[in-house]
């Protein structure tokens, strides 16, 4: 008998936890088709046009009659998503309170009270023309500073010139917010001189309280831009003369993200991360959720958790605005999931979204912020950004996330400016790619959520306190900026 998981008693499908052949028994029915791990089988007959339910919610409609025991996937189910929606605020009852978690981590307390999980110097180019210059400065300075800092890192990108209006403003906002990050004791901004994204304008978007930790370099005006840049980084290292201090969990700012998802993402890793998110919020900390296209089909669940009408209205505006963004470019709102998601068992965007939003746990939604903005309230915040892994994780870091919990069923080596904890949805990935994966959420199916939650908390605390992630060991650190406008 093959093992399968039924999530909600009203569901029409169950998810296979292992590959199964036609004729095998699973979830009380006989399989008509072979069904792979993470894929779904029908538990009962489903009529053509009928909604198909998983997680207790519709994940699409049957495109033909489906018999009990059939493989349920894109050959017989299609999305029911359309354009912008009309929503009603139905405040959800708050989740039951749990005992406070006494966990602490060893962080770097900054002068403004924020806490970093790393003590680094960041080098940010204003424009792609000096991206390699920034990298050379960082490499040379890192060799000179040694262990005086946790690292010197340049974050290159191809933007900053030939941009106009809102597009240029987005690039500038992301870089200005990155320059404010508490993981960076100091920041060197490297400009060329003739670019659209002028250094003065960028610095003008950095708050006054942060500017003592900022140095600037204009490459065209310098006789030796690399030597001058290294000198400025060495001077910034004086600001990194701080030690780790024991601080409570509420000083953590957690970004949550999924990428390379599979049919187990919504069953193991994402709900496990949701428990971690709730722990941080319960402690008084901050959690950031993004990937707006990956809430389509599950948006009402988030809207019902809004703390008031204002936050509810902001969610509606953001979701519908993102749908219009797709439609204005001639694309359907339901183009997601990706080929890898489909191969892993995810059939429609509704199914993907219902699994994805579980990363946010059950906490009330306290705020909604735009792309390039910085987190401003305790609790759960919804952040504007697309689903693209690199773009959305960069937005999470710019918003203030000091660690990212990144769930994956297919695997990815990507890393970002802050510790990026890769959480596998299944044992097979964790065992096959230990060079990518930091935590195996497949243990949820072996030991239950409580044991897995305790283990994940210990892992996150260790990483926030200085233990390297797989991505850090592999020197996988990058940013990507959301380009939405014309290029000159």
In short:
The protein is an alpha/beta fold.
Domain count: the total is 3
The fraction of residues in strands falls at 15-25%
Q: Biggest sheet: strands, sense, closure?
A: 7 strands, parallel
Structural class: alpha/beta
Helix content: 25-40%
Number of strands: 23
Low-confidence stretches: none
The side-by-side strand order for the widest beta sheet comes to 19-20-18-17-21-22-23
Q: Given the C-alpha coordinates, what overall shape results?
A: globular
End-to-end separation: 61 Å
Mean pLDDT: 95
Protein name: Altronate hydrolase
InterPro entries: GD_AH_C, GD_AH_second, SAF, SAF_UxaA/GarD, UxaA_altronate/galactarate_dh
GO biological process, one term: D-galacturonate catabolic process
Pfam family, one: GD_AH_second
What are the main properties of this structure?
single chain, 488 residues, alpha/beta, Archaeosine Trna-guanine Transglycosylase, Chain: A, domain 4, Rossmann fold, 3 domains, seven-stranded parallel sheet, four-stranded antiparallel sheet, 14 helices, 23 strands, 19% strand, hydrolase, GD_AH_C
Description:
The mean pLDDT is 95. The chain has a 7-stranded parallel sheet, with helices on both faces. The chain has a 4-stranded antiparallel sheet with strand order 1-2-5-8, with no helix packed on it. The chain has helices at residues 131-145, 165-178, 199-204, 225-236, 269-282, 299-303, 309-328, 339-343, 349-356, 389-399, 427-432, 443-447, 449-464, 470-473; strands spanning 4-5, 13-16, 25-26, 29-30, 40-42, 51-54, 57-62, 71-72, 77-78, 104-109, 115-116, 120-125, 151-154, 184-191, 214-218, 245-248, 253-258, 286-289, 365-369, 379-383, 403-408, 420-424, 439-440. The chain is 29% helix and 19% strand. The protein has 14 helices and 23 strands. The protein has 3 domains: 4-78, Archaeosine Trna-guanine Transglycosylase, Chain: A, domain 4; 109-240, Rossmann fold, CATH 3.40.50; 249-473. The termini are far apart. The protein is α/β, with parallel strands linked by helices. One of its GO terms (molecular function) is hydrolase activity. Residues 11-78 form the SAF domain. Belongs to the UxaA family. Keywords: Hydrolase, Lyase.
């Amino acid at each position: 008998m093959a093992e399968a998981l039924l999530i909600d008693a009203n569901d029409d499908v169950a998810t296979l936890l292992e590959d199964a052949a036609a004729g095998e028994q699973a979830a009380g029915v006989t399989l008509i088709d072979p069904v792979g791990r993470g894929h779904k089988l029908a538990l009962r007959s489903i009529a053509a046009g009928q909604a198909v339910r998983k997680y207790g919610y519709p994940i699409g409609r049957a495109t033909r009659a489906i018999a009990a025991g059939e493989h349920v996937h894109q050959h017989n189910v299609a999305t029911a998503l359309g354009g912008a929606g009309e929503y009603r605020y139905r405040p959800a009852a708050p989740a039951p309170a749990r005992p406070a978690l006494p966990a602490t981590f060893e962080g770097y307390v900054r002068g403004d009270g924020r806490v970093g999980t790393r003590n680094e110097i960041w080098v940010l180019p204003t424009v792609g023309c000096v991206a390699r210059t920034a990298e050379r400065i960082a490499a040379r300075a890192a060799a000179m500073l040694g262990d005086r800092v946790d690292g010197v890192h340049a974050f290159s990108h191809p933007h900053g010139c030939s941009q106009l209006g809102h597009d240029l403003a987005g690039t500038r906002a992301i870089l200005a917010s990155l320059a404010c990050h508490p993981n960076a004791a100091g920041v060197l901004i490297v400009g060329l001189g003739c670019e659209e994204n002028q250094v003065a304008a960028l610095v003008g978007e950095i708050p006054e309280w942060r500017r003592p930790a900022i140095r600037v370099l204009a490459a065209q005006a310098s006789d030796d831009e690399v030597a001058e840049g290294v000198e400025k980084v060495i001077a910034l290292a004086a600001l990194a003369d701080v030690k780790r201090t024991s601080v409570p969990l509420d000083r953590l700012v957690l970004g949550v993200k999924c990428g390379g998802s599979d049919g187990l993402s919504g069953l193991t890793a994402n709900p496990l991360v949701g428990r971690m998110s709730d722990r941080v919020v319960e402690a008084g900390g901050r959690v950031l959720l993004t990937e707006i296209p990956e809430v389509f089909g599950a948006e009402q669940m988030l809207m019902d958790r809004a703390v008031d009408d204002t936050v509810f209205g902001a969610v509606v505006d953001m979701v519908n605005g993102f749908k219009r963004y797709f439609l204005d470019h001639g694309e359907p709102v339901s183009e997601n999931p990706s080929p890898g998601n489909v191969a892993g068992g995810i059939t429609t965007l509704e199914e993907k979204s219902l699994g994805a939003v579980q990363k946010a746990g059950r906490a009330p939604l306290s705020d909604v912020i735009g792309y390039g903005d910085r987190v401003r309230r305790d609790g759960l915040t919804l952040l504007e950004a697309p689903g693209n892994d690199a773009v959305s994780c960069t937005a999470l870091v710019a918003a203030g996330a000091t660690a990212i919990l990144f769930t994956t069923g297919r695997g990815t080596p990507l890393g970002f400016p802050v510790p990026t904890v890769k959480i596998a949805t299944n044992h097979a990935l964790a065992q096959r790619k230990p060079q990518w994966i930091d935590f195996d959420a497949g243990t949820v199916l072996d030991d239950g959520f409580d044991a897995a939650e305790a283990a994940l908390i210990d892992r996150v605390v260790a990483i926030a306190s200085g233990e390297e992630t797989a991505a850090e060991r592999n020197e996988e650190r990058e940013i990507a900026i959301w380009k939405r406008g014309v290029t000159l």
